[in-house]
Task: inverse folding
DNA sequence: CGCACATCCTGGAACGTTCCAGGCATCCAC
DNA sequence: GTGGATGCCTGGAACGTTCCAGGATGTGCG
């Protein structure tokens, strides 16, 4: 009755953590019943449920996910591969957690870092017997992704992959860049440059969107594409290249890159948006910083996360699913770095 | 002999992944032997070892970590709690992966996001039966950390915690800020302000370091502390507050915050470092961006990661350990945002 | 030749769960 | 009263590993 004190686990190695049997013994019921109660399944009276719960609390019982999952044959685990250095990936992961919240599935994160490549990140998750893989803008070649998809459901986020076996959740990159250009045109700009993303995921589509939109607006002759990339560094370099012959507006591959552009411009005493308008892409949390106040094209990360998690679970459960590729519409977010063209 | 083709797992739900027994059957040996071979333990002849390996490869066998760990009683898992929105945390996690590489321990990441608080992040790791917890600049009160440390070894990074039960790996924040101030004084500055980190981890120590260093340099009368924080936003706000009465130099709580400061300054046409010197803290990858070129005080993340992982493992194995608190020395990194004082 | 001692291997019992088949009351309808 | 539900509970067999106690062989040495 008052033997509680001694049971608080304190010497880590020594006394092992309490198990179902311990709780069962203390509550005077069977393991199976405790199991029921812990999972909130029907089949126990309110009174016993309370007693069991109490015993569990007193012992500080925590179910062992390994045993649990081993037995049930399912891990209810979704593996997430992402680049820990990318703020936009972080934003997506944040939303993935939110989306997974009420689904009964947990997320297992595996980061790609400068010293830990994608195959390595994936391998860890395979050993954990994840039921599906969510990959944020993976770099692996299509063939590798396809091979992986033969083992378990693979959902790729923020990158297009033309393979029948892998699901894709992305935003309409071309449309988004179209929005950006249209916005600039409406503001009176015609000399609109594009700093691109090189071989990054989505870069090709955004480049195409830029070209199309320019053509659509009768500005095909003014197309100007400057090689960029996906980091601040890349943006800064591109902006420096632009300084000699400034356009009146520039649509940048993504927000990180745009940050680099902005920085070089302000240092060079080029007024934004008075002399030049800048628009980014992603609506990365960077863009939202009030001091940057970057106009951008938002990817609906929340919606994409929901779609991706939903799709991954459907596949894991073997439910019939619809279209292999889910495309979220992008949305223009006007902030302070774009303004009317004051032609020189 | 040629029954290989059919065994490539393809319909996810249908045929379960191969187990030890499958491999054993195919190689014509016992499960136990396969187990030995997979773990590269002695006790099998070179020839059988080869045969088993071959069978495993053909089946695409991957050990099931759940079962493995359940049985062995150990998870060889180190839980990592970190803020996914913080670039510096990402830098540390990157190093943690590197440090864990050859230890036989794996990292289990659990992110803190705006919608997922620390207790929740911790809980996930507890269910995974991690053998120790690495917490990057946790916000939890000391009491909560102490309670946690009663259950399993806890190593806190980048924050001081005065509790006998939790290990701490941090850099000497006060010394680091001392270095920063000394550097500025050497450059001829005397009107040196400090934009602080409020209640953030390490902020109190850095504030103290600033005060001490000012006193030490005979500048006690010039002490000027401006409330800041740990984000770009906070830095921008602090910088705006400073504009009316600019000091000749400012030592900022961290690099993220310094980024905000720099941005506001350049926009206000204040030349850095000609009119004002700015120094950050952390040597976050932000600071290294060439276009920012921020002078800063580097925390030796690689060393801290090694120490933290080492300490966590020692505790998990129950080896005797030395001092509870490990302090890494900070290092001044001079880049482009600090320069000689041109007093007005 | 017999005995100890490697070396290579096997069988079966754990680990902490979940799941299934069933047991024992109690209750209701006929 | 009897038969069948229904509600609450139990015991024991999985799950895929590792670990331990041993069983074969072969080898060296007195």
Result:
């Amino acid at each position: 009755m008052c033997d509680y004190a001694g049971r608080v686990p304190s010497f880590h190695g020594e006394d092992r953590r309490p198990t179902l049997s311990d709780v069962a013994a203390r509550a005077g019921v069977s393991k199976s019943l405790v199991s029921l109660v812990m999972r909130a399944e029907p089949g126990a009276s309110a009174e016993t449920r309370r007693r069991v719960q109490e015993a569990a609390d007193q012992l500080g019982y925590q179910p062992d996910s390994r045993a649990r999952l081993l037995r049930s044959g399912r891990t209810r685990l979704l593996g997430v591969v992402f680049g820990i250095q990318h703020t936009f990936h972080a934003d997506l992961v944040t939303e993935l957690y939110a989306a997974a919240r009420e689904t009964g599935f947990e997320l297992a994160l595996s980061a790609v870092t400068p010293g830990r490549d994608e195959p390595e990140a994936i391998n860890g998750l395979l050993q954990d017997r994840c039921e599906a893989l969510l990959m944020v803008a993976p770099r692996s070649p299509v063939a590798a992704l396809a091979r992986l998809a033969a083992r378990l459901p693979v959902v790729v986020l923020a990158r297009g992959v033309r393979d029948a076996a892998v699901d894709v959740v992305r935003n309409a990159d071309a449309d988004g860049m179209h929005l950006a250009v249209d916005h600039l045109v409406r503001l009176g700009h015609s000399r609109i440059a594009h700093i691109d993303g090189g071989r990054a995921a989505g870069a090709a589509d955004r480049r195409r969107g830029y070209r199309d939109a320019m053509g659509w607006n009768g500005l095909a002759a003014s197309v100007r594409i400057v090689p960029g990339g996906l980091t601040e560094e890349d943006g800064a370099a591109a902006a420096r290249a632009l300084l000699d012959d400034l356009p009146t507006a520039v649509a940048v591959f993504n927000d990180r890159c745009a940050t680099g552009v902005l920085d070089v411009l302000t240092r060079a005493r080029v007024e934004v948006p008075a002399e030049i308008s800048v628009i980014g892409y992603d609506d990365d949390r960077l863009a939202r910083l009030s001091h940057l106040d970057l106009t951008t094209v938002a990817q609906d990360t929340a919606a994409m996360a929901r779609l991706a998690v939903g799709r991954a679970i459907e596949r894991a459960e073997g439910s019939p699913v619809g279209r292999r590729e889910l495309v979220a519409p992008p949305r223009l977010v006007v902030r302070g770095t774009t303004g009317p063209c004051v032609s020189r």
About this structure: Residues 5-63 of chain B form a domain with the 434 Repressor (Amino-terminal Domain) fold (CATH 1.10.260.40).
